[in-house]
Amino acid sequence: MLSSPIVLVLASVAFASKPSDSHAWQAPTAGQVRSPCPGLNTLANHGYIPRSGKGITITEIMDGAVAGFNVGNTSILQAAKFGLLSGLAFDTLDLDALALHNLVEHDASISRQDWALGDNLHFNETLFSVMANINPGSDFYTPETAAQVQKMRLDDSIARNPNVTNTDKEFQLRSRESSLYLSIFGNTSTGVAPKEFVNIFFREERLPIEEGWKRSEILITPDTMNDMEDFIVANSNWTQSQACEPLVIGPHSVI
Ligand code: HEM
Ligand SMILES: *[C@@H]1O[C@H](CO)[C@@H](O)[C@H](O)[C@H]1NC(C)=O
Ligand SMILES: *[C@@H]1O[C@H](CO)[C@@H](O)[C@H](O)[C@H]1NC(C)=O
Ligand SMILES: *[C@@H]1O[C@H](CO)[C@@H](O)[C@H](O)[C@H]1NC(C)=O
Ligand SMILES: *[C@@H]1O[C@H](CO)[C@@H](O)[C@H](O)[C@H]1NC(C)=O
Ligand SMILES: *[C@@H]1O[C@H](CO)[C@@H](O)[C@H](O)[C@H]1NC(C)=O
């Protein structure tokens, strides 16, 4: 049986096609895990990082982010390194473990509930509707709408969550996350991004290729995001709820 030439040809075709993932979107199947991060989940749903969501290395995340989004390593390296602390493995992480509260996961998210209020892992349309309904009549999200959404989502958390954590750390993460979705799905210098693309990213954790999105030709780095991130920081009327210690997260001359 095994020596039949037809079986051998089929076997070698199957073997040859296995290493090159087609990067088609595929919802996670039973046993595959996902995170509170729409970015990592989208990369996994397209096979730019392991579709299992388990045992992922920092290098796989860095390579996947460039291949899928053209997001450069310095934009996400700190978050990825923090992510390792979500589990016991020395140099890999599982996506679902990233729901660990106050490691990278934070309150006042765009699309996930605060940890103290409920499910902080899965997409929540009720919360996301704040962003989806911002600036009606326009087809675009902008750094200005991103700042408004950050303010509205934080106001809601402060009103409803007596345990809200809102320090400079969370604010920096949230402003970086906003800059990432604006840059990936919009113009990397103006941060003007079609709502349709961003909504598909959040709701389906899918790259909106059929809808006309193209991967940025420009590598998305802290430098390219600098202006829009500064704008968001300056225009979200943010004040801290608690102080945190000064954050030492890398050699600042580099990142
Ligand atoms: C690959 C590029 C990435 C993109 C485009 C991206 C994008 C985003 C966005 C837009 C959010 C906000 C979700 C919301 O507020 O509802 C988010 C949240 C999150 N990201 Fe990512 N991210 C990326 C990489 C990473 C990395 C490397 C890690 C760590 C290993 C990470 C961990 C998280 C976590 C834990 C959250 C949840 C925070 C929360 O809302 O509570 N992300 N990300
Ligand atoms: C990170 O990206 C930069 C370009 O932005 C590149 O020069 C560098 O080699 C990358 N680092 C690693 C470890 O791949
Ligand atoms: C907030 O945390 C305190 C203790 O840290 C706890 O007693 C209380 O139940 C928490 N409240 C909520 C809404 O989770
Ligand atoms: C979504 O979030 C809202 C507001 O916190 C909450 O009332 C609702 O139960 C959540 N929905 C799901 C499906 O968890
Ligand atoms: C911030 O405050 C200013 C002045 O009160 C106001 O004009 C602006 O709309 C506020 N921005 C947000 C995002 O709430
Ligand atoms: C981004 O916007 C700038 C300023 O409006 C424009 O010059 C540039 O061509 C746009 N880039 C892309 C890729 O559309």
UniProtKB/TrEMBL annotation:
Residues 21-230 form the Heme haloperoxidase family profile domain. GO terms for molecular function: metal ion binding; peroxidase activity. SUPFAM superfamilies: Cloroperoxidase. Residues 1-16 form the signal peptide. It comes from the Eukaryota. InterPro entries: Chloroperoxidase, Chloroperoxidase-like_sf. Keywords: Heme, Iron, Metal-binding, Oxidoreductase, Peroxidase, Signal. Its cofactor is heme b. It holds the Pfam family Peroxidase_2. Belongs to the chloroperoxidase family. This is Cloroperoxidase. It comes from Roridomyces roridus.
